[in-house]
Fold:
Amino acid sequence: MPTAAMRPTAARTAGLPQALALILAMLLPIIGILSLAPNLPAILKHFDNVPYATVLVPMVITISALCIALFSPLMGVIADRWGRRRLLIVALSIYGVVGAVPFLLENLYTVIACRALVGVAEAAIMTTGSALMGDYFPGAERQKWLGLQSTLGPVAASIMILAGGALGTLSWHAPFLLYALGLPILLLALLVTWEPRVEPRASATHAAPQSRFPWASMLIVGAVTLFTALLYYIQVVQLGVIFSTLGLESSARIGVFITVASAGVVVGGWSYRKLGARGIGWLLALIYLAYAVGYVGLGLAPDYRAGVVFALACQFGNGLAVPTLVGWALNTFEFAHRGRGMGIWNSCFFVGQFLSPMLVGGVVALAGGMLPAVATLGVASFVAAVVAWLSLRTRAANTLALTKSS
Structure:
């Protein structure tokens, strides 16, 4: 629990403008990647004469996620020592300018270098944005804004996929211009955010010593986050393949069914605003139960029409998972360590993105097909739900309750 000597000052009161600036900033890394996805075939065609293009071109999209996983812990340390808002401003500037630079480039290696730098900036944006959300907003208010962020995510993602596809019809360069959206969000952050500060105790003789970083708690939060991310990204990466296996042949129709299923994310994010006061064990059990119902159902579904119902359950779990894990992490770390803690949290989540396809591939090989593998992972999710309920629900509220003020 934060010491009295390390509480952020309450001289300013945050509200909608600050929440909007942080939510929009934290959506940028996700929607930026999605805006490029429809353009990947065009980029591959343009650079088909470059050696190892089939390996290098996908890095235009994936290298930023890798940089988020690698550099988020470092960005967290810098944020705690140099300033969270200050680092956010620098990162948004890099995102908006360097992210759009490939619009002017023709060299694949230079494009990849720009994407790597943007990935470092994205690591800083996600780390500082999460930490500032914890600094600005206490308990129930934080819960509300985290739920809204999860609700807006799929809407923004759909818009950016459509925008990226439309711009891609002009040239492979054009979708990179969407990264310039970081500049108006930079302006908003400059206008409405401030650097959180700590208020020292009135008497230095009674000041509590600065606590050490809670590595034991970080290990628990990080392990649970990594495990949840493995399940989370099954849908993000594999849902199109699952629908195809269930009988959908048209990529356009697959896109429609994935969009329908993503309504579950909206419901999950909205539900967090109502359910966030529950203990972390209860919430994790509900998330894993949603995955269990969804994945087992998808694995046993007779066709894609039945499958979409179970995909909704999975996506509900996804919509609830991110705000639950972020809220838990924010309440685990006191003010002095919040940047580092959220940096490590981001790293764990994005490592899960990297490892999830490998997990699915291994289970597919063992189970003999995609649908049996998905059902197997659903059974594993049910086991996780039981474990979460039994092992986490009784922990002390000052370390695991999601509504604790800090």
Q: What stands out?
A: Residues 1-7, 199-209, 396-406 have pLDDT under 50 and may be disordered. The chain is about 75% helix and 0% strand. The CA atoms of residues 246 and 302 lie 7 Å apart. The chain has two domains: 14-193, 215-395.
